[in-house]
Amino acid sequence: AHQWRGVIREYADRLPVTESTKVITLGEGGTPLVHAQKLSELTGSEVYLKVEGMNPTGSFKDRGMTMAMTAAVESGAKAVVCASTGNTSASAAAYATAAGLKCAVLVPEGKISMGKLSQAIAHGATLLQVDGNFDNCLDIARKLGESYPVFLVNSVNPARIQGQKTGAFEIVDALGDAPDIHVLPVGNAGNITAYWKGYKEYSAPFESATAGTLPAVSTRTPRMWGFQAAGAAPFVAGHPITEPDTIATAIRIGNPASWDGAIAARDESGGFIEAVTDDEILAAHRWLSSKEGVFVEPGSAAGVAGLLKKHAAGEVPSGKTIVITVTGHGLKDPQWALRTEDGSDVQPVKVSNDVVTVAAELGLEDK
Ligand code: F0G
Q1: Backbone angles phi, psi at 362, to 5 degrees
Q2: Ligand 1 mean position, distance from CA 55 (Å)
Q3: Are 70 and 89 in contact (CB under 8 A)?
Q4: Ligand 1 site, CB within 6 A
Q5: In this structure, are strands 79-83 and 321-326 parallel, antiparallel, or unpaired?
Q6: Architecture of domain 7-59+160-338 in CATH?
Q7: pLDDT of 293-305, one tens digit each?
Q8: Closest ligand 1 atom, residue 59 Cα
Q9: By three-state DSSP, how is residue 325 classified?
Q10: Which of 42, 57, 93, 320 could form a disulfide with 125 if both were Cys (CB 3.0 to 4.6 A apart)?
Q11: Can you tell me the distance from the alpha carbon of 311 to that of 43, in angstroms, rounded to the nearest whole number?
Q12: What's the rounded Cα separation, in Å, for the pair 157 and 151?
């Protein structure tokens, strides 16, 4: 039986590695491409969800982290550092453990979910809560990488983008060609940059460092539709913003590092980057869990929120293939499922330890 070997070994001929590279992996990638029945019915297009919450640490970051940590080991580093809204720190901590490296993570105080915080701590990272936002954390992490003996594993490290481009490869491999439209949330903008790189590389002959010229795999590239949270939407503003705010803490970012990559993905693909409100994000979060059976964290629902918004505006074509990357698992930040639509707390019903009472509560009648 074939065992998935992680993204580096599966796509070695398209990544900057060789036979002798010591690969640091936790078996990331190979995530499900789930047909979204209700979104497909609604739009008249075939809509698929690339469920990145199924990665080892529960987010897409693992695709980039296997490459970054492999590069860290290759460079002889003893310690890695990153800034994070939570998922990068969880992934860095886990992969640093696998690599036998020390790991320090900088997170914005009070603005990362408990699930992500506990992952970084469980994997033994040194976690510092900075009195500032993600952009401030990234500034410090970059300076540490420049002036101190620590290896930076944020997506400003090109190894991260290399690993994350494999998400696009898997989608084309599963569908037989690129989709017409690819939808995803945009925060620090590494992922939209990486997907666009992957789609472009798969649509043309590729000069492999180890395997000669590889033929094109796909006949086309998709339009890239990016969505930001309205309170943290620098690409919509057209410039960095200093006080980003949204309940979707994963994408609470005002000064994206991969600015140029995101603009290139948007413009070269004929796509756009727009904003969705926190209420639209929470409605999409609820849609995914209650209609599709897929539980994601709020930030991950921004792409679906965008598709729903575009559909309501009559701007989603029918008869097309649309893929939405849902970036992180719902268990990372489960509190949002325990709120009703009007914002009150969900109170699970209590019943006595008795079958007749339980049946009555469930509205069941005798057979
Ligand atoms: N979705 C989730 C769940 C994320 O954690 C992130 C980014 C994004 C989307 C946006 O992706 O930054 O490549 O545009 N999280 C980073 C972190 C910033 O630190 O975990 P992006």
Answers
A1: -85, -5
A2: 14
A3: no
A4: 59, 61, 84-88, 185-191, 250-251, 297, 299-300, 327-328
A5: unpaired
A6: 3-Layer(aba) Sandwich (3.40)
A7: 999 999 999 999 9
A8: 3
A9: strand
A10: 93
A11: 7
A12: 9
| pLDDT tens per residue across span 324-359 | 999 999 999 999 999 888 889 999 999 999 999 999
- Listing DSSP states for 128-174 in one string gives EEESS-HHHHHHHHHHHHHHSS-EE-STTSHHHHHHHTHHHHHHHHH
CA 217 to centroid of ligand 1, rounded, Å: 28
Choosing among 1.10.12.10, 3.40.50.720, 3.40.630.30, 3.40.50.1100, the CATH entry for 61-157 is: 3.40.50.1100
Q: What is the pLDDT of residue 342?
A: 86
Ligand 1 atom 6 nearest Cα: 250
CA–centroid distance, 250 to ligand 1, in Å, is 5
Q: For residue 1, is pLDDT > 90?
A: no
List beta partners, residue 272: 225
Q: Is ipTM strictly over 0.85?
A: yes
Residues sharing a CB contact under 8 Å with residue 28, sequence separation 6 or more, in sequence order: 6, 7, 55, 56, 62, 63, 65, 66
Three-class SS state of 2 = coil
Ranges in the chain annotated CATH 3.40.50.1100: 7-59+160-338, 61-157
Q: pTM of the full predicted structure?
A: 0.97
| Tens digit of each residue's pLDDT (9 = 90 or more) over 86-110 | 999 999 999 999 999 999 999 999 9
The DSSP 8-state label assigned to residue 323 in this structure reads E
Three-state secondary structure of 224-246 = EEEEEEHHHCHHHHCCCCCCCCC
C-alpha 63 to ligand 1 mean position (Å): 12
